[in-house]
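Researcher: Quick sanity check before group meeting.
Model: Go ahead. Protein one:
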Amino acid sequence: MPRLLLRLILVWALLVMLYLPLNTSTYAVGDDRIDVILANMTTRQKVGQLFMVSLGGSQLSTAQIEFLQEYQPGAIALFSSNVDGKTPEAITNYINELQFVITEAEGVPLFIAIDHEGGRVQRLLEGFTHFPEPSIIGATADPFIAEAVGQAMGRELSAVGINFNLAPVADLHTREDMLNTSRVLNHRTLSQDPQMVGELSAALIRGMAQQGVIGTLKHFPGHAQTDTDTHRDLATVSLDRETALATNIRAFEVAIHNGAEVVMVGHLYYPAFETEENRPASLSPIMIDLLRHDLGFEGLIVTDALDMGAIRNQFSIAEASVLAFQAGVDMLAMGPNANFSDQKAAMDAVYNAVESGEISLVRLDESVRRILNLKMKYNLLDWQALDSTTTIERMDTAASFQTLVQLFEAGITVVHDENNLLPLSPTDNVAIIYPVGKPLFLETCRQFLPNAIYQSYSWWPYDWEFGATQAAARRADVAIVIAENIGWNTPQGELVAALPLEKVIYVSLWKPYEWEYIQALNPNTLGFIVTYSTSEAAQIALCRVISGQAPMRGRLPMAIQGYEVGSGIQSES
C-alpha cells in the first residue's frame, strides 16, 4: 500500500476513534480477564509482550508499521529522534498512531515509555515543563513534595499518551558524579542517603501513578562507586556484600517496601554477589533472585537497554535477551541503537527458545501475566485515543510551575549564616549581586527588598562590572552574591573573589561543593546558600526564602566540607 494512502487511512481511523471506545469484546470483564486474554494469545504474541522496542524517526514508516503489527511488542520506548521539535499536540497524535497500529492488529495496547527524570535527562522539551535536577527534591527531604512533583510530571506525560516513565533514578549520589560531567549519573541523583532516596523515589512514583503513569526505579542494584558508563562498557561495583546491602541496595529495598511497581536492572557487575565473572545484574539469576526474594519485589522487572556497550561487548542482543529472560527478568528493553534486525533477532531468539522448550510456557506466562496485570491496573487494556486539540489544557503547565516554586522553597538550603543575618528585612542595608541573564532575581527580590542595591553582571564579566559589583558590595552591610559554577567559569570566579567576602552570603545556583571553593578564597565568608538549579522557579523561591516570605527548610542531600547530609539552617517564614 502506498505510504501516503496508508497514513490517510490511519488519520481517518484516529479521528473516528476519538469518539468511539476501543472494541474490547474479545476481553472478559472481571477477575478472569487476564486468564481470557492469555488463553487467546499465540506464543508469538506472548513473546512480543516481553519486549520494549525502539523506533527511529518522528513519523511511522511502512516498515515500522509492518514490524509493529507482525511482532506486536508490549512496549515502545520513545527517544529524542521520536519527539525532538514536536509540539505536545504532535506527540499526542504520534502516540495515538502507535496505539492504533497495535490495536488494529488485535494486539494488546502498548506501554509508551520515555526517560523523564528532569534535569539533564528529559526528552520532552518544546511546550513541556523542564523539571529540575533531582538533588533539589533530595534537599526537601519531604515525600509530600516529591509526590506533588510526581503528579506534575505524570499529568504532563499522560496528557500526550505516555503511560510509563523510566524514572526515578534510585542510584546513590557520589561527590565524583556531581563534579565530573562525563559520569553517567552527573546531576541525576536524589541524595547519598539510601533511606531518603528510597522514600523520595517511592513518593515520586506514587505521584505519577495518581496521573495514570507507571514509574520505574533504576538502575538496580545501583551504580554508586563506579565511574564506568554502562553505555560504553560493563561497570563493576566493588563493594563488599554488607556495604552494598546497607547502601546501594538499601535504597531500592526502601522504595519497594513503599510500593514501587517496576524496577529496571542495570548492566552492573557486583563481584561480592555474582559467582560468574563479569556477569551483569541484568543477566544474572543471582541478582534477580536477590531482588525477587531477599527484597520481596513482586512487580515488573525490566532490563536497561540491551544495545548498550556493557552488553554488546560480550553478547549479541539476541543472546542477551534469552539470558535475561532465563535469569528472571520480565521485560527486555531496546535502546535507540538497536536496529530492526537486532530487535527482530532478539524476539525470534526468545520465541525459538520457547518453541524448543529451553524456556517453558509456564515461565513465559508468568511474565506476560505481570505485564498484563499492570496494563489492566492502569486501564491500558481499554485504550482510547486522546484528543490532541485539548492536550495543552490537560498538561496544565501553569500548575506544574507553581509546584516547582513550592519545591524550591522547600529545598533551597541555607548551609551557613555566620551572624544570623537571614532572613533579611526590607530595611537592611543589603546589595543583591546577580547574573544579568537571570532577571527574575531583580523582579522578584525587589518586591520584598525594595531598598536593596541591585547590581547585575554578565556571564563572562566585563572589566567595568568588576568595579560596579565591588562598589555595590562596599556600600552595603551584607552582599547576597548569586553565581553559577564559579569553580569552572574562571572570569566569574575572579569577579566573586574580588568582592569583600567577609560581607558576602554566597548563593550557588548549581553545586553545593562550591562551598569549598568559597572557603578557599576566604574562610570568613558570611554565609552560603544552595539552590541546586538556575531555573526561573529557583530564582523566585530564592528571593522568597532570603526575604522571609518562605521558611528556610532545605537540607543538604549530600555531605560537603564541614557539613553532613541533612545539614541546613531551619526557620519559620
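Researcher: Fine. The other one?
Model: Protein two, sequence then structure:
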Amino acid sequence: MWYYFYGHTLIIYIMRKNILFAAALLMTALPCTRAEQSVTAKTKEATVFLSGAELKQEAVMTLRQGENEVRVEGLAPNIDRQSLRIALGGQAVLTSYDYTTDYLSRPSAGQRVKMLEDSLQHFIGRKEQLQQETATIDEMLDMLQTGMNSALTPTEHTLTTDAIEKNLTYFRNRKNQLKAERSRLQQQVKDAEERADAYRRQLKEEQSGGKKRCGVVTLRLNASKAGQCTTVLTYYTPSASWTPFYDMNIQSQSEPVSLTMKARVKQNTGIDWQKARLTLSTGQPARQHDAPQLSTWYLRTRQPYYQDMKRSKSTARIVAYEDAAAAGEPMVMMAMADEDAVSEDNASVAAYVEAEEQTLSRDYKINLPYTIEGNGKEQTIVLTEHKAQTADTKYTYLTVPKLDGGTYLTLDISNWQQWGLLNGEVNITNNNVFYGQSRINTTTTGGTLSLTIGEDKQIAVKREMLQDYSQTKTTGSSKTTTRAYKITVTNNKNQDISVRLQEPYPVSTDKSISVELTDGTTTAANNDKDHGILTYELQVKAGQTETVTVGYQVKYPKETEINL
C-alpha cells in the first residue's frame, strides 16, 4: 500500500511542478503592457509675477513600444492644477495623467549631515580642551597665592624690604599674566560654544529636512515605437514673487540723476530652479477675469435705527481718519543690507535684460541663467537703468511747519513715464553716500515724479502764534475765533534756495460755521480752498530770512464746540 501511496504523491508533485513551470512560460511569453519608470523634471523657464509664477519644466524619458506609465517627479507641491499643461515630443500619445504630492529624499543629505557632525564634534572637543586649560590656569593661580602667602609669613628668617618688594613684583606680574591668559581662554571657550551651537542648529535643520515635499505627475502614454521622449510641463504656483525697488544716485543738482531699477526675487516651492531663464512680469494671473457689470440700483425706505447710525458715524470717522493717515503717511522705510551702493558688476546685468510691453503687463526677460533656491531666500537682480537729465529735474525745499519743523529737499522728475516704473522703495545716495529712503508712487495724477531726498538742517523754520491777533469774542448768539501765525524761514546755507511752504487753515463742513482768511495773511502762490492749504513759493537768499503771516477767522454758534 505504501508503494502506491508514495507513487501517487510523487505523480501529484510532478503534475504541480509542471503546471507552475507552464504558467511561468506563459507569463514570459506574454508581452509586457506597462514599464514603470521615474524621471525628474528640471526647471527651464520661470515667469515670476508680482505674486506667483508660471514654471516650465522638462523631463526626458525612455519609452517602450505600446503602453507606458512614467512617474515625473520634481514639480512644485502646491500648483494650481487647473493650469497644468503637458506637451509631448516624439511618437507618443498621452492617454491620461494624475497629479499628487510626495516626499522625496535629498541625495546629498547624507554627505552634508556627515560634514556637519564632524564640524560639531570638532568644536565640542575644542571647547573641552580649552576648559581644561582654563582649569589649569586656575590651579596655577591658587598655587601662586599659596606660595606668596608662605613667603610673606613671618619666620625666624625675616625678609628684607628688597626681598619683599621683589616677591610682590613677581607675584603681581605673574598673576596678571595668568589672568590675561585665563580671559583669552574664556573668550575662546565662548567662541567654540557658539560655533558648536550653530552647527547643532544646522544639523537639526538638515536632519528634520531630510525629505522634501514635491509634486509628482504620473503619465500614461502610448508610444508607436520605442525611444526617448521629452515632455514639457507648464503650470502656475503661488509660491513665488518679486518686489521692485530702486537705487538713486545724485552727484549734484547740476548733473543728471541715475535711477537703477532692481528686483527682489524669492520662491519657496521647495524645488531649486537650476540655471533657469527668468522673466519678471508686472502682470497678475487670477482665477476669475470677469469684468464688473452694473445692476439696477433700487431705492427702498427704512426706519432709522439710532444705534446703528451712531455706530456708522463712528465707523465713518475711523475710515476718514485712516484715509487721512494714508494720504499723509510718511514713506515706508525698510532696512536693507548690501544693496546701498551700485557696483559695476550689478550694473552690467542690465545689458542682458529686455523690457517688453505686453497687453496687460510689462515683462523683463533676463538673458542669463539664474539659480533660485526654493527656500524663500531673496535674491537681488538688476533690471534697468535710467538717467534723468538736468532739464527734467527740479529741486525744491519743502516745509510744513505745523506738522514738522524740518525742511526737506524734494526732487521732481518729468518725462519719466516711458521708464515703466512701479511703486517701490528708493535708496537715495549722494555721491555714493547713503542718504536715506523714499518711495516712488506711480499712481499720482500729476505729470511729475516727486521724491523726498532728505532733511536739510541748515534751513531753520519757526512757527509762532501772534497773541495780539489770536482771540475769541462772543457777539449775540455767535462766537468769533481769530488765529494768526508768523512763520520765518532762515537760509543758513551759502547759496540761494527755493522753499515751498505749506500752511493749513480750517475748512467748514457746516453751514453754521464760516471761515475766512484775515486781511493780514500773506498772499499765497496757491490757495487750495477745498482742502484748506496755502502754498508759498519762497526765494530765500543765502544768509537771509523770509517771513510769512497766516491768519483766519472762524464764526460759529456760541453753544457749539469746535476743534481749533
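Researcher: One line on it for the slide.
Model: Residues 1-14, 19-35, 305-347 have pLDDT under 50 and may be disordered.
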